[in-house]
Amino acid sequence: FRKGALGGASLIGGGVLLSGLAAPALGKPSKKQDVEILNYALTLEYLEAAFYAEAVAKGALRGDVLAAARLVRDHERAHVKALKQVLGRAAVRKPRFDFKNTTGDQDTFLATAVALADTGVAAYAGQGPRLLQKPVVKAALSIHSVEARHAAHFRALAGMSFAPKAFDAPKGMKRVLEVVEGTGFIRA
Does residue 9 or residue 62 have the better pLDDT? Predict the structure, then answer.
């Protein structure tokens, strides 16, 4: 998998936008673009892993919400590990985060978890068609489906419909970057 994803790609230098989110060119699918998209996904996974880890550590969550946060934290850590393994030395570094106390209150945590999970699902859906290599597509889809289950579960825990629509629109990179930048969670 790693060999296929990186096949001849050199270290990605530059191309970083919004304090660490990779900004792949909107060009024709290529192995280089696959690496850039995987780094974009890795940054989103870093964000989610740190968010859930902080929420669990703060101790404000309880019951089913705490159990879900622990499970999702572990999933996000596994996603980070897998993406870093695939990318090797081409992996972007983990940014610093400031979740602005969204992890210190259960209701605020749930609202934020829903927003992050929904954005992550839409981000994977938006980049999937831009991937070239079949092993990379398979890996992205395997993460995408788990992210969708996370989103559905947190929606249900927040008292929202777990599937409010029959179809979801993917979000392009520009829109996802606007949403993530708008949170102010990624620090320079």
Answer: 62
pTM of this prediction? 0.85
Under a CB-based contact definition with an 8 Å cutoff, are residues 53 and 103 in contact? Answer: no
pLDDT tens sequence across 138-150:
989 999 999 999 9
pLDDT band at 60 (very low <50, low <70, confident <90, very high): very high
Q: Which residues contact 70 (CB under 8 A, 6 or more apart)?
A: 52, 56
List 17's β-bridge partners, or say none: 21
Rounded to whole angstroms, the Cα distance separating 148 from 140 reads 12
For residues 15 and 170, give the distance between their C-alpha atoms in angstroms, rounded to a whole number: 22
Three-class DSSP category at 164:
coil
